[in-house]
Amino acid sequence: MSEEVMEQIKQQIENNPILLFMKGSPRMPQCGFSARAIQVLSACGERFAYVDVLSHPDIRANLPKYANWPTFPQLWIQGELVGGSDIISDLYEQGELQKLIKAAAEQAE
Predict the structure, then answer these.
(1) pTM of the model
(2) Of 14, 41, 65, 89, whose CB is crowded by the most CB atoms within 10 A?
(3) Residue 27 marked ligand-binding
(4) pLDDT tens digits, 50-96
(5) Which alpha helices (H) appear in 1-109, and where do they start and end?
(6) Cβ atoms of residues 74 and 37 within 8 Å
(7) Is the Cβ–Cβ distance between 23 and 52 less than 8 Å?
């Protein structure tokens, strides 16, 4: 586990109120779970940052250890891990994700 990579991950999470670690990009997701996460996040209507873990193998290898979460995508809101695709979708359907996203976006302004 690289100290530098862990610090980089920490900085990304701290500096982006809404951050999705995903496979691919919002325009070209590289797996169905990432595609679903993008669909749900986009429906919330706020801007968010993303990191393509396929382009950053060091982050892909270390983030599961940092987060204690084995899979991608991973949604982080205000420094807290929300979860993966299923959790994001469930929260969205309950109306909770929209509240979290809106609060994070307002605080970032």
Answers:
(1) 0.95
(2) 41
(3) no
(4) 999 999 999 999 999 999 999 999 999 999 999 999 999 999 999 99
(5) 3-15, 32-44, 57-67, 85-94, 96-108
(6) no
(7) yes
Q: For residue 68, give the DSSP letter.
A: T
The answer to the question of whether 72 is labelled as a binding residue is yes
**Residue 98 DSSP code:** H
Tens digit of pLDDT for each residue in 27-62?
999 999 999 999 999 999 999 999 999 999 999 999
Would you say 31 is a known binding-site residue? yes
Q: Any known ligand binding at 90?
A: no
102: annotated binding-site residue?
A: no
Ordered by where they begin, the domains of the chain are 3-108 (3.40.30.10)
Contact 18, 47 (CB under 8 A): yes
Task: Tell me: is residue 85 an annotated ligand-binding position.
Answer: yes
